[in-house]
Specification:
This protein has helices at about 20-30, 35-45, 90-100, 115-125, and strands spanning about 10, 50-55, 60-70, 70-80, 105-115, 130-135, 145-150. It is α+β, with helices and mostly antiparallel strands and about 150 residues long. It has one domain: Aminopeptidase (3-Layer(aba) Sandwich). A hairpin with a 2-residue loop joins strand 2 (about 50-55) and strand 3 (about 60-70).
């Protein structure tokens, strides 16, 4: 694996990051969000908070959270392949959970493919538990989604 020679900086995402975020989205997810949907979420939705991980000016990761009243939902967490397994995902989850706490959120949910064992493990280490299942949730292969929850 290629060694990363950069200290990752985290900041709130804005319109200047959307293009690179979408490139990551397309490279990571089998059914990626459209550029327009991602841009709308980052730039227009008052309930959405997105964070990017930057190596100099390169977006290497991003994560999103929707919040409504006392509940939040993690929309996406994505890390470029060459930047995985160095703690970026863990740090982004911490940032999202800290943000949720600042918003007085009581619980956070997310969906994850049941085959995504690495992500499930990461979420469990962050204190999430498997709460439910959505049968045939993913449109590309009709895989079930595991609904995970964390009480803050």
């Amino acid at each position: 694996m290629e060694k990363v020679e950069c200290k990752i900086q985290f900041k709130t995402a804005d319109s200047s990051h959307v293009g690179q975020m979408h490139e990551i989205e397309e490279s990571v997810f089998p059914v990626p969000w459209s550029y327009e949907s991602l841009a709308s979420d980052v730039c227009e939705h008052e309930i959405a908070v997105y964070v990017v991980g930057l190596c100099k000016d390169e977006v290497v990761s991003y994560a999103g959270l929707w919040h409504v009243l006392e509940e939040s939902h993690i929309t996406n967490i994505a890390v470029k392949k060459k930047y995985r397994r160095i703690g970026i995902g863990k740090k982004m989850i911490k940032i999202l959970l800290d943000t949720a706490r600042e918003l007085d959120v009581k619980s956070v949910t997310l969906e994850v493919r049941e085959s995504n064992v690495a992500a499930i493990g990461l979420y469990e280490k962050a204190g999430f538990f498997k709460a439910n299942r959505r049968k045939k949730y993913y449109t590309d292969n009709f895989e079930d989604a595991i609904i995970m929850n964390k009480v803050l």
